[in-house]
Amino acid sequence: MLDERLEVENLHLWRGERHVLRGVHFALGRGGCLEVTGPNGSGKTSLLRTLCALIYPEEGRVLWKGENVRRELPAFHAALAYLGHEPPLKADLSARENLRYWIGIRRRVAAAELDAALERVGGSSWCDRLVRTLSAGQRRRVALAGLALLVVPLWILDEPTTNLDTEGQQLVGSLIAEQLSRGGLVIAAVHQSLPPAVRDVRRLELSP
Amino acid sequence: MSTPGAPAAALTRAAAADDGAGSTPAAGALDAVRLALLRDLKLAFRKRGQLVQPLAFFALVTMLFPLAVSPELSRLREIAPGVIWVAALLASLLALEFLFRDDAYDGTLEQYALSGQSLTWLVFAKTAAHWLLTGLPLALMAPLAALSLGAPSASLPGIVGSVAVGSVALSLIGSIGAALTLGMKRSGALLSLLTLPLSLPVLIFGARATQLAISGGPLLAPLELLGALAVLGVTLAPLAAAAAVRVSLE
Amino acid sequence: MKWTWLHRLASPPYVYALAARLTPWFAWPAALLIAAGLWGGLVLAPADYQQGDGFRIIYVHAPSGWLSLMVYTIMGVAAAVGLIWRIKVAHAVAASCAPIGASFTFAALVTGALWGEPMWGTYWEWDPRLTSELILLFLYLGYMGLRAGIDDTQRADRASALLAVVGVVNVPIIHYSVTWWNSLHQAPSVMRLGRPTMPPTMLLPLLLMLLGFTLYFVALLLMRLRSEVLARERSASWIREAVSA
Amino acid sequence: MREFFDMGGYAAFVWPAYLVTLTVVVLNMVWARRALARSRAEARRRLDRRGEQP
Hints:
Strand content of chain C: under 5%
Helix content of chain B: over 70%
Number of helices of chain C: 8
Largest interface: A-B, 49 and 48 residues
Mean pLDDT of chain B: 88
Radius of gyration of chain B: 22 Å
Number of strands of chain B: 0
Shape of chain C: globular
Structural class of chain C: mainly alpha
Distance between the termini of chain B: 38 Å
Radius of gyration of chain C: 20 Å
Oligomer: heterotetramer
Order of helices and strands of chain B: HHHHHHHHHH
Distance between the termini of chain C: 30 Å
Number of strands of chain C: 0
Largest sheet of chain B: none
């Protein structure tokens, strides 16, 4: 089996009139973690969405296991978990229901596994409440539980620590550290830097 | 984290079991479709107010005609097919705006597009849910409208059948328009401009079938044509709508 | 050899220059053909034995109607090419087609109504061809509305291309359903185009007009194509050349 | 000549039809030229702006 490896070659992306990505390139192997930094509007989110193949770059390509992700898109997406700015949750479903549908569409998940993940993010007491009644931090925790439940090699995270308290940020750190120790890959756009639990972080700085 | 021990370990074990091979106990396409459908149905029943709106709209539009034209049942019977179909078309159009909008807003569509499952099938599931929540109730309500417009009771099965089949095609055509107008601020008028011209064949065949049902004629021919449109829609519309959803995420 | 030629057609600078060079080669013949067609149609062709001089509307109605359909088809094909191979120039062609096609659809509708009044005794008859033409106008308007509603050119290209492809698949279905509907409600229409019995003095000007309008459309398309290509190109240095020339 | 403009009594229909078509033909030409001029001006503006911030 081919090694899990993400390579990015010479990405160029325009958003309207702006040349946002100007020749971004990097490679990330098993256990590698990349931190994407830069001021607002420097194209962090655009880069992450391009890596997910949501956005089609003007030039350049993204390779997964040595192959252009466009060639085998479903396989690439099956290996990928993406968390955007907002947790992808339905306000009118409970946290548990949300996870059951969101994760269930991708993989079969046992109830016990769900419980464990919710407990891990500290949600045992509120996981049956409707998401609309949860705080922003709690919603972010539900999203983190989903991330862990997906069990995929490549994580792409947009500001994973937003809205989280200190303990929540440590949780992000330990989740990422575990993912890396399993041989997973993590790419995260961050404002400051990833929690200290994550070591050996490479950094990609985007300029506006 | 109160007890980082056992559950976390269970989680790690589960992760370890799947490690390397992607996510192994992957859900099949059928599971995905079933769950997407169930999710939309459950959400709809949590917001019942939105469900009733198109039906109330349909009843209201039907009621306008006796008031605007004439209360004479013999005259109403003549225009009944047109009234029922125009009202059904507009009611289903009204509901279309909600087809993808919430999902686009909260990031669910993005997760669908990145799920590794076929987006076409997931879009199909959403459209199916939309039909179950609007098209089917409209078909069940059509007999009431028909009766109030002077249609004989023998015509009711034919009317239910034609609206049921025709609304499948309407939902599918509408899904393309709804996906294309995603992300626009005021999409209502544009959505009608895109959807109505494409819906005309459904209107023509549907109204003809209803007319034949009321006059007691053989309505198989227009019903078959409606069915053909629905089949064509099932095979092509989700593809186009899924492509449009991807464009909206770019 | 063949393939490099195809590849060049997908390259914006080449297309821009080529379009500029080709435009007069279509515009002038179009002007000549239309002038000849007008002379032939208005002066030389004899009056119709049934419709008198009223039939002369055919020389503007038929070419407009022909363009309305041909342009929509070209738009759909260009859109499909743009979608499948992600060719910017193809999207530019599709975008250029819409306003031209819509305007000639409008002309076909108005001339059709003006022909209808003396022939049917009413400006508007729910004749299947006129009805289809009206629906076609709405399809064009929808396409242009969708383009106008999306700010980002690339997204507008791809979304409107999908609509154009869906529209092209639907046009025959719509036309069939309208014809079917019409056959239920009324006798076949009086207006019949291109009767094989048309004498050559009537037919020849019509053919000249059809060809002239087609060439004129190509000239218009080439002009619009240049502006659409220019609007889509962001980085290339050739813009400097194109603009300064 | 009068005869020609009279169009056998159909003048009220024939000439408006030709006029409308002619208008569409001419307007298309005007619009196409204007669109091209606008894109060129726009492209020039973009080039200028890029020149200011290399």
